[in-house]
Design a protein that fits this description.
Blueprint lengths: L3 H11 L4 E2 H8 L5 H5 L2 E2 L2 E2 L1 E3 L4 E4 L2 H13 L5 H10 L2 H10 L6 H7 L11 E2 L5 H5 L7 E4 L2 E5 L3 E5 L3 E4 L5 H11 L21 H15 L3 E2 L3 H9 L15 H4 L31 E8 L18 E8 L15 E4 L8 E2 L3 E3 L1
Parallel strand pairs: 12-15
Antiparallel strand pairs: 1-5, 2-3, 4-5, 6-7, 7-10, 8-9, 10-16, 11-16, 12-13, 13-14
Length: about 350
């Protein structure tokens, strides 16, 4: 069984589902003979399917993913394979394995949690199942991206290490999502400045409104949602890069990734229409400034180095904003840039994005 993750990795890396018998034999090496491999099962279910051309595949795509992520968590792939494997694995599987500490003996739990279909899941996305009550109320859960642990330099010289992964919403909270919250809680719907609602990022919301939304959504679905810390936000925005922007050093490329003063037509635009950053996050810069959990500090001296929010010894009358907006120039969209405002401020260039601790 120790060679199965290599087979799963090969299939993932090449975007394949089927392997010819001779290629499979090469990957398995002398450890398993083909005859015994053909009859392997997974918790009483067939592990492999074979077609008329004598090609093999894992019976369900989710088994393939399970084997790959399990191998990544146990450091049983080469360094190169581990690096690529992490970009191929989905956050659904990471979340499941982290929570259940699952291994091959937990096959029944695996089948209960996952819809074992052949549909390839998009890398790095996570969408938990809503409780029936919440679904009936029309609650919408955010599509979220898995943010791996790691280190980076925040700002110019503040070193931060995030020891644990977390989830960050792929998009800012939209009017459609926020309006459902307003209806359910009897709150006033925020003004859209005549630009339209639906898939546009919600604007005219205070930091306190964002906190209330997080508390409400958490109560509806049983997962704890929150605002990101500004360290988490910058780490996720950079997505492993160390250039001026997450796409490189050229500000003229900003319009491919963001709505800003040059292309926004003087208003917000629907989320998800520009290219994402390398970790699958859309509208991280431009469109709307995003409220962060932290209170304002002028500099990073004394700031937490573990990625947590900074909520002491600063200006509690101001909360941090990140990302720039529809009316800003490209230089404001650098991950290093930060701003602040009073937590009760409402404006047409401020929204927010959700995070979730794993």
């Amino acid at each position: 069984m120790e060679r199965l993750p290599q087979v799963a990795y090969f299939l993932q890396a090449d975007g394949k589902r089927w392997l010819p018998e001779d290629r499979l034999q090469q990957l398995l090496g002398p450890v398993l003979d083909m005859e015994s491999f053909k009859h392997l099962d997974f918790g009483g279910r067939s592990l492999l399917n074979r077609n008329s051309e004598q090609q093999y595949r894992f019976a369900h795509y989710s088994i393939q993913e399970f084997l790959l992520v399990n191998a990544l968590m146990n450091d049983s792939l080469s360094d190169d394979a581990t690096c690529l494997g992490k970009s191929l694995a989905t956050a659904q599987m990471w979340d499941f394995l982290c929570a259940a500490k699952a291994d091959l003996s937990k096959a029944s739990a695996f089948y209960e949690v996952f819809d074992c279909t052949d549909t390839k899941l998009k890398p790095y996305t996570f969408l938990p199942k809503l409780p029936d009550k919440a679904a009936a109320l029309g609650v919408a859960l955010p599509k979220m991206t898995f943010i791996p642990p790691g280190s980076f330099v925040m700002g110019q010289d503040h070193s931060v290490t995030l020891a644990k992964p977390f989830l960050l919403a792929c998009y800012p909270v939209t009017f459609a999502e926020y309006d459902a919250f307003a209806v359910q809680t009897g709150r006033r719907k925020p003004d859209d400045w005549g630009w339209g609602r639906g898939a546009r990022p919600v604007i005219g919301v205070t930091w306190q409104d964002a906190q209330a939304y997080c508390e409400w959504l958490s109560a509806q679905c049983g997962h704890t949602f929150r605002l990101p810390s500004e360290a988490e936000w910058e780490y996720a925005c950079r997505a492993g890069t160390d250039t001026e922007y997450f796409w490189g050093d050229d500000p003229s490329q900003a319009e491919r990734y963001a709505w800003l003063e040059n292309n926004s037509k003087g208003k917000t635009q629907p989320v998800g229409e520009k290219q994402p950053n390398p970790w699958g996050l859309y509208d991280m810069v431009g469109n709307v400034w995003e409220w962060q959990q932290d209170i304002w500090h002028e500099a990073y001296q004394g700031a937490p180095n573990d990625g947590s929010a900074w909520e002491v010894d600063g200006d509690a009358s101001q909360r941090v904003l990140r990302g720039g907006s529809w009316h800003d120039a490209a230089n404001i969209l650098r991950p290093i840039h930060r701003f602040r405002n009073a937590p009760d401020l409402r404006n047409n260039d401020i929204g927010f994005r959700l995070a979730r601790t794993l």
